[in-house]
Amino acid sequence: MGKRQLLLMSSSAVHGFGYLEHAESDLTSFLKHNSVQEVLFVPYALTDHDGYTERVGSVLRKLGFGCTGIHTAPDPVRAVQTAQAIYIGGGNTFLLLDTLYRRQLVGPIRERVLQHGVPYVGSSAGTNVATRTIQTTNDMPIVQPASFEALALVPFNINPHYLDPEPNGTHKGETRPERINQFHELNEAPVLGLAEGTALFVDGDRATLVGPQPAVPGTPYDARLFRKGEESVLYKVGSDLSFLLRE
Amino acid sequence: MGKRQLLLMSSSAVHGFGYLEHAESDLTSFLKHNSVQEVLFVPYALTDHDGYTERVGSVLRKLGFGCTGIHTAPDPVRAVQTAQAIYIGGGNTFLLLDTLYRRQLVGPIRERVLQHGVPYVGSSAGTNVATRTIQTTNDMPIVQPASFEALALVPFNINPHYLDPEPNGTHKGETRPERINQFHELNEAPVLGLAEGTALFVDGDRATLVGPQPAVPGTPYDARLFRKGEESVLYKVGSDLSFLLRE
């Protein structure tokens, strides 16, 4: 995995920032460090592929990078095989993974990223599908994919848009930690809850929590790591999380 | 469907009430009206079947009804076929539906309720599985069921624990209405968002919104109905929603 280059963002929208604004610095240095000039954008998590590609592309162009939507390619598999960088945006995780399976892109993306070191950027649903499985998504199952198994670019799960329960909340639906604990009643993999504004930067066998500081004003955490049968642990931006890649 | 008797609750817990306390009146009259003495409880949405059955059973006994957990029956299908009433509790919707499929209970429960008029009580996940599909659950997909299609005791979807977005919220994850709109980009069925504390009572071809009044203190809605391509509509407890059964 010495070539692996990943930037796995919790979200593209963060309170107090414009669209993707919180990530501009990390995104620019990630792509420049990898000598990327043109990004292949995957808009499959939403239904308006043109509009979504334009929204992300306008930010990328402002930062100095070109952007092409995979949906405009005559052969999406070939587009993946020739891409300088792959960016999968957020939306609905089930729709996204279902589309990746239907267009037979799961294997080709995985191979490009893990074997050839093609940089991968994910946001929200695009971060969910980069992990072992989509089993820790927050999204509604609006379509049924062939499998919940995903790209497995990292050997654990991520919960994007992570947030601790409100101390005085009156809603009785399961809290995020309760939902992740339900996952751990049946599954073993660690789950990294990434607060909005944070991202996991993976450089080969090293993983670092990145983002603006403080990532989410008013919250005491940037990420919370859940392991089966253990107390969860808080991490701040700058933390070395490489140990998660060795599990 | 002249025999159909359903009480589909949004949740078993409501702010300001003890466990199931908000539903005691509706639950008692529903079971008494149907001459039920013994309830078959289905605890499959959680992993602690004994503890869950005891928790619900203690409330039912206090109200004057007996309660047996289906997990203690030597033959669960036979238990369904001889049950006076079936009560499916909440927890994780994916785990629940997966277990119903694995134990080959989907067909038998559907037949008992729709053909023989056996009363059905659902709460949260138990309400999700009573509808067309589990595609409007709030739960994490911790296991993959064979299908998202559910008992289809009613021809629409329900979103339990429904809540409107907070007016001044800073979290940027999709709101509940945004998630339901994503469902409607790919699916046609109406989605009834049931606020905590409310339930849909179905008596044959009539459906009524029930619950304490106000169901959720401080909120202007008891239920919100979403239809594809239309503005959502608010309903108060007492509303006749029979039209949903004819779609």
TrEMBL record, chains A, B:
This is dipeptidase E. Signal peptide: none annotated. Hydrolyzes dipeptides containing N-terminal aspartate residues. It is found in: Cytoplasm. InterPro entries: Class_I_gatase-like, Peptidase_S51. One of its GO terms (cellular component) is cytoplasm. It catalyses: Dipeptidase E catalyzes the hydrolysis of dipeptides Asp-|-Xaa. It does not act on peptides with N-terminal Glu, Asn or Gln, nor does it cleave isoaspartyl peptides. It comes from Anopheles gambiae (African malaria mosquito). GO terms for molecular function: dipeptidase activity; serine-type peptidase activity.
